[in-house]
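It is worth pausing here to work through a concrete case rather than discussing structure prediction in the abstract. The textbook approach is simple: state the sequence, then state the predicted structure, then interpret. We follow exactly that order.
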Amino acid sequence: MPKLLLLFVATVALGLGACSGSKPGAGSASYDPHTLPSGPLGESIAYGHDIVVETQSLMKPYVRAQMSCAACHLAGGTQPRGGSFIGLYGRFPQWNKRAHRVIALQDRIAECFLYSMNGKAPAYSSKAMIAIVSYIAWLSRGVPVGAIQSKDDRYVVPLPKDSPNVGDGATIYATKCSMCHQSNGAGVGGTFPPLWGSGSFNNGAGMAHIDRMAGFVRYNMPQNAPGSLSLSQAYDVAAFVLSHARPRFVKNALVVTRALPAAYF
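Step two, the predicted structure:
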């Protein structure tokens, strides 16, 4: 399994009742497969986890970027201020300004495939989509439906008043980031995601917004010393990364689902 807890990008971002008889885990800090319910539901949750951390290998037809979901959702979506999924399930349906409509969780996951993965979305009724939803629901057990996101789970930050210094960002990147993401931003295989170029997230991704990337860097990078950069330094690094070319989102892309017959008795 790729070690994707190290990842940097792309780009965000629900409380069902307990999925088994185990104690609700609203404060869970990790994923423990031994606590999953038995049978098909547990298998679906486990598959959803695997998709999040091994997206490229398990969802190859749907991913063009050299990235995984765990690039933006650290520790499989369990790390505070690292794109945590905990509690996310119960915040949907919700109004989405970009879509100009109320969206379901499946819509949000589809957006991640379209933007951060620079690919295409799996069908809403597919095994993969249901597994991802199952996994997010499992992580969210015990969190009240509609609960407001905790401050400790958010990484979007108010930006400094002054403009970022891209030159300073380049210097910080060279000393703090390039050993993992390379000087050309290409990353290293599935372990360190590309930050720009053809294999990175496209310009429609959440991480393409400087307030999101600056906050993500501030709280999670560099991987060997998270939190060591000031907000100003993180702002400069984010500006440097986002100053490079990346794929453009195809605005007329469609989310297509397959038709299924209704169940009958």
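Step three, interpretation. The domain at 166-242 is CATH 1.10.760.10 (Cytochrome Bc1 Complex; Chain D, domain 2). The longest strand covers residues 94-96.
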